[in-house]
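Researcher: Next entry in the queue.
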Amino acid sequence: MSSLEILVLDCNELTPITVNSIRKNMPRAKYKVVKPGKSKVGTAVAHCDKLSLVVTSGLVLNIKHGDLPPEDKIKNYHLCVSRMGVYVDHPQHSDVYKLIGSPINKGFLDLSIFIINPAKWYEIPDKDSGILGNKKVLYMPRYFNHKHDPIIKDCIGGRDAFKYGMSGEAAAVYNYVPHLLSGQATPVETMAYCFDKVAEFTEGLPEEVEERINKLGEKTKVRVGKMRKGLYDLEIGENHE
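Model: Structure for this entry, 241 residues:
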């Protein structure tokens, strides 16, 4: 893990998940928790005095050495961030967003997690829309942020969902906040998302919240957990032969 400090935005009741994951997976990382203002980017600029990782509460962090670009590269950009849509650049699935009426395209950024260089921001934004027109943005690699996506629910088959779940074995971030808050997921979503990796960090949550997240984790374990890990390990082994 790099020397980036972590700013946790306390946006919901899931803050213990993120804090627990930092303490267990990244024990040397420095972090602080703050309430966000109207702008996540503005909150980050106001509270960070050096290159920092900013994360919305409810995400599980397991960032290891080599997961992030070198800091010498990141510091040349205003923001390092993921695209909102998992499949916006996929050759087969990129057009599905339009078909389901979703506005998501390559221009939509996922501000649930980003790296910011506050030295490049001369004003504190009071909103998150329309602020990056003249800013340099570096995109995080796809595997970094294993996240929920609207087309997985109804438009992705079991094979593709399982394949996406396998990619979560290499992820540095598990990002399923809407499902954790609602406790709802379709069978396909429980194949695609690694809910079992979130269920490890529920200590400190209200009992009813912990229970619904554990239920999601159990569904994933029952359906694909062991198979997902086994096939991922097999694939990695074959790629190294």
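Model: The mean pLDDT is 91.
Researcher: Noted, moving on.
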